[in-house]
Design a protein that fits this description.
297 residues, alpha/beta, five-stranded antiparallel beta sheet, 14 strands
């Protein structure tokens, strides 16, 4: 939370005050259900690249990794020669796993194109190259937090950086219509499956910064969930231009969040809340959910 407070101060955003009594993660260890390991060229070991680029650090156990990941990891050692990376993903609620690429040395199934996540009582197909939150327990809290910041009912929601359709699926019942924007081909293929039977969500394949400025519709709510680089200037200018009454911003980088909030507050938005949630215990990273409001002129 210190990172969020320092970033807000550095960029001159409104004062940052974490809400009292925010619950800590239920288990600060063994939570990460998606891991990528690099492969050693010489011995075929699996591990992490040293942050200073000094070769491979062999890893046989990671204290923040899901227990299933730690059970598989030792069996990879010595068998990864010729590979670039090995990806391990698992969802405890569904029991679904993904190991990519296919590895004959493992007794477990491997080489899956996708696996199944569960969040907020809904199931989501997630491909090997698609993004999904790595901490299932805290992802549930994140959804609850976003739900509390969104209006109970609305006309049109723009779900920007929509991924596999997570928020669009979960909040489809709150809005008459949702336009979800995503550029990843794999995420869009997953979203098509995840949105089966949901008629009021329209997915558009595009970069948010390219589609949003020319959007003909005028949303009453915009939900932002950008990558760590935050929103491109074109996105912020488009928001300022059509001035939706409510913006909910989910961020994994307090520095770019503070920068973007400053631009929006300078343009007349009122920052109602910035709530941190520890999605990545034992690391310096923090997730934040912000709500901005604007009174129509």
């Amino acid at each position: 939370m210190g990172a969020s407070r320092d970033s807000a101060s550095r960029w001159g955003a409104l004062p940052f005050s974490p809400p009292p009594g925010r619950a800590p993660p239920p288990d600060p260890w063994g939570y990460r259900n998606h891991m990528r390991f690099s492969a050693g060229r010489k011995f075929g070991d699996a591990g992490f690249i040293h942050r200073r680029g000094r070769g491979l650090l062999k890893v046989t156990k990671c204290p923040i990794a899901d227990p299933w990941v730690n059970a598989v990891l030792p069996r990879l050692q010595g068998h990864a020669r010729g590979l670039h990376q090995i990806q391990l993903r698992r969802n405890a609620a569904t029991g679904s796993t993904l190991v990519a690429p296919a590895l004959e040395v493992l007794p477990e199934e491997s080489g899956q194109e996708h696996y199944v996540e569960e969040l907020a009582g809904r199931r989501f197909r997630v491909s090997a190259s698609s993004f999904f939150q790595v901490n299932s327990a805290q992802a549930e809290k994140l959804v609850e937090l976003v739900a509390s910041e969104l209006p109970k009912q609305g006309r049109l929601l723009i779900d920007a950086y929509a991924g596999v359709g997570t928020f669009a699926v979960i909040f489809a019942g709150r809005f008459e219509r949702i336009i979800a924007i995503e550029e990843s081909p794999s995420a869009l293929r997953d979203a098509e499956v995840n949105l089966d039977g949901i008629e009021n969500v329209e997915f558009r394949r595009a970069k948010v910064e390219e589609l949003l400025p020319g959007l003909a519709e005028e949303p009453d709510v915009v939900l932002l969930d950008p990558p760590r680089v935050g929103c491109a200037p074109e996105v912020l200018e488009a928001l300022v231009g059509f001035a939706p009454p409510t913006i909910v911003y989910v961020s994994c980088n307090p520095t770019t969040l503070a920068r973007d909030l400053r631009r929006l507050t300078d343009a007349g938005y009122r920052l109602e809340s910035v709530t941190p949630i520890d999605m990545f215990p034992q690391t310096a990273h923090i997730e934040c959910v912000s709500r901005l409001m604007r009174t129509p002129a």
